[in-house]
Amino acid sequence: MLKPRIIPCLLVHNKGLVKTVNFKDPKYVGDPLNAVKIFNEKEVDELMVLDIDASAENRGPDFTLIKNLAAECRMPLCYGGGVNSIDQAIQIINLGAEKVALSNAIVNNPQLINHIAKAVGTQSVVAVLDIKKTGFLKKYEIFTINGTKATGLKPVDFAKQVEELGAGEIVINSIDKDGLMTGYDIELISKIREAVNIPISVLGGAGSIEDISDLIKKFGVIGAAAGSIFVFKGKYKAVLINYPNRAEKAELLKKFY
Amino acid sequence: MITLINYGSGNIHAIANIYKRLNIPYILSSDISTLKKAEKLILPGVGDFDETMKLFRKLDIKDTLDELVLIKKVPILGVCVGMQILGNLSEEGTENGFGWIDGEVKKFDVTKFMHKPHLPHMGWNEVDPIKKSPLFDQVISENGFYFLHSYYFSCNNESDILAKTNYGIEFASAINHNNVFGFQFHPEKSHQNGIEIFRNYANL
């Protein structure tokens, strides 16, 4: 039986790893390759690495970093940040990443999903939707460029559109919950889960293993991604890379099965 | 010596890294004279069936591989799309596969699923060997392997199935016919279980 995935998400800023709160105040937490080595030892299900500088600086992906990460990873790797062409996506897959994440580029040009899916296969195309509540009515809206640029797009409508165009997975990234460690935005996740049939992963808000457990209990097979809980330890947020071991993970999944 | 067929598939480096760490000699090549000397082959694969077959056409090594596999009986292990192209055809496209194992690649039919699993089949799932094979020595079944695909290999001969996995339906996640082997999952991204598979293949 297919298991839910528990996915550390690492953010790259100025070539180092950082963790943000509400997409702001990046705090340095370590070196990317060193983190991958530790996550290898911990046998993580999958790893997501997002370069948060690339689109903001209007530059392409850092292929040297991707090459080094992919060669080191003994688990599947999803890479995102600055990807806006078919050739870049092909190059990332050829360097050994399993999946390429798209965000800003597909908001500007949704058809790009279709072209990239044709070149690398649907299973390797991930649409990342950065979402926050806006306006007087607190409606969900998709943002780009690290949460600074409003797009006017409604998450559920856009999720359906990216599925139709050939995305193989959607990552729901809650800007409002990022770094707060107070739990996932279940309302937002439910809306998108009901709307699409491709796998989804969710990011933003996980503050404990219980939050992940609750998520899996509610949604079954899902990608539970998180940043803070896998890089911080304790209430003073000391930097310490950690991940549930096999026994802890089995215990967590037991409640679900 | 393991020869990894270097036709442009991305997961070749991860497989090479595993052999490097295991201290097992390997070489990456798409050069006909090097391939002809191969003792054991690995056919990596990620992505689209037709795009993959087109890369082989461009390199013009299909006849060389046919000779190695069918006449010289050199062992070959296909991974993911590298397994799918061992078959005759795929619903994903119009190109012919190598046809070394009799079967067609089909898309999962979600209407036949009892529950509602999502496509692609993405993540860690169990692989149950239905035949005894030294390839699965030291593999811990419940730890599973990583899958990422929407199409599966449908064997025309049940006896070619080495292991099965359940995702809505039971499908062949590992196949074998004579010297030809295929894995739908990604052993190169499956931690210790995957390392054992590559070690076992080298020892075969």
Q: What does this protein structure show overall?
A:
Chain A has 257 residues and is an alpha/beta fold. In chain A, helix 3 packs parallel to helix 5. Chain A is globular and about 45 Å long. The termini of chain A are close together. The mean pLDDT of chain A is 95. Chain B is 26% helix and 29% strand. In chain B, the strands form 3 sheets. An 8-stranded mixed sheet of chain B has the order 2-1-3-4-13-12-11-8. The radius of gyration of chain B is 16 Å and the shape is globular. The mean pLDDT of chain B is 94.
Using brief descriptors, characterize the structure shown.
heterodimer; A: 257 residues; alpha/beta; eight-stranded parallel β-barrel; two-stranded antiparallel sheet; 35% helix; B: 204 residues; three-stranded mixed β-sheet; 29% strand; globular
Q: What is the topology?
A:
The complex is a heterodimer of chains A (257) and B (204).
Chain A: E1 5-13, E2 16-21, E3 24-30, H1 32-41, E4 47-51, H2 63-72, E5 77-80, H3 86-94, E6 99-102, H4 104-108, H5 111-120, E7 125-134, E8 139-144, E9 149-150, H6 155-165, E10 169-174, H7 186-195, E11 200-203, H8 209-219, E12 223-226, H9 228-231, E13 232-233, E14 238-239, H10 246-254
Parallel strand pairs in A: 1-4, 1-12, 4-5, 5-6, 6-7, 7-10, 10-11, 11-12
Antiparallel strand pairs in A: 1-2, 2-3, 7-8, 8-9, 13-14
Helix pairs in contact in A: 3-5
Chain B: E1 2-5, H1 12-21, E2 26-29, H2 32-36, E3 41-43, H3 49-59, H4 62-71, E4 76-79, H5 81-84, E5 89-90, E6 103-107, E7 121-125, E8 128-129, E9 145-149, E10 151-155, E11 161-167, E12 169-177, E13 180-183, H6 191-203
Parallel strand pairs in B: 1-2, 1-3, 3-4, 4-13, 5-6
Antiparallel strand pairs in B: 6-10, 7-9, 8-11, 11-12, 12-13
